[in-house]
Amino acid sequence: MSRVVPDNMSKTSQPNYKVLIEQQLTGQCNEHIHYLNETVGIHKNVLQAWAEMKEAADQAGISLAIASGFRTAQRQLAIWNSKYCGKNNIKNLAGQNIDTSNLSEQEKITAILLYSALPGASRHHWGTDIDVYATNLLPDGTKLQLEPWEYASNGPFSPLTSWLSKHSQSFGFYFPYDKYRNGIAVEPWHLSYMPLAAHYEQQLNLTLLQQTIEQFDIQGKDTIIKYLPMIYQKFIVNVANNPINAGV
Ligand SMILES: [Zn+2]
After folding, report:
1. Which pLDDT value is given to residue 244?
2. 236 CA → ligand 1 middle, Å
3. Where are the alpha helices (DSSP H) in the chain?
4. CATH of the domain at 107
5. What does the pLDDT read at residue 247?
6. How many angstroms is it from 198 CA to the middle of ligand 1?
7. 6 alpha carbon to ligand 1 midpoint, in Å?
8. How far is the CA of 176 from the centre of ligand 1 (A)?
């Protein structure tokens, strides 16, 4: 396969990025990010693997694209606060809007976490994680929803799902949200670059997360801090084993 990025981006020359500084890990700076266009950025050391996977997918007739890559903590905070205050809807596993008027703060927080990461704890902060779709499989006149039915066997992205399940791992990617584990909902569009994410998973610990949240202007802060150990276990580290750590 032809190299589409220079050799100095090769996987063997990335020792500097095995550790992200805390500000990078928690989405508060973007020095580790390369922007592919105005809105989509990915980790500099994911560029090559992404380009190679995209090229292979293109050759198989799938125009692979990134709907969402790097996301700042500020962006995640805006998503969080808009759901917490009721400006945006909170959905349940069946995709129905939840009536939050009778929920406790703790219940509201766990309801939001089903689909939205806690600011500071999103894997999208790392630049290793991307939400993907196929531009040529999106039916004319429709808008990408990032909902599981689109990626299911009778959905428009079914060929993408089967291609990724066969080939993404050979480019270093896997699905951390491959199934529902009583925490985060399944996300068949969310890929993670395992060689780097394996390190960052270890670095994002509870202490760092608490220090980060305390600095944020986040709604529900006291309750989030109170239940942070539960949130960490149920919604942050409760993902598929990174195949690298699992010895695959
Ligand atoms: Zn995602």
Report:
1. 85
2. 13
3. 22-25, 47-59, 73-84, 105-113, 148-151, 158-167, 194-203, 206-215, 221-226, 228-231
4. 3.30.1380.10
5. 57
6. 16
7. 27
8. 10
Lowest mean pLDDT among 51-55, 92-96, 117-121, 173-177: 92-96
CA of residue 114 to ligand 1 center, whole Å: 12
Measured in angstroms, how far is the CA atom of residue 175 from the centroid of ligand 1? Answer: 10
Total count of domains within the chain: 1
- In a domain, residue 248? The reply is no
Q: pLDDT per residue over 77-128, tens digit each?
A: 999 999 999 999 999 998 899 999 899 999 999 999 999 999 999 999 999 9
Query: In what helix (H) or strand (E) does residue 174 lie, and over which residues does it extend?
Result: strand 173-174
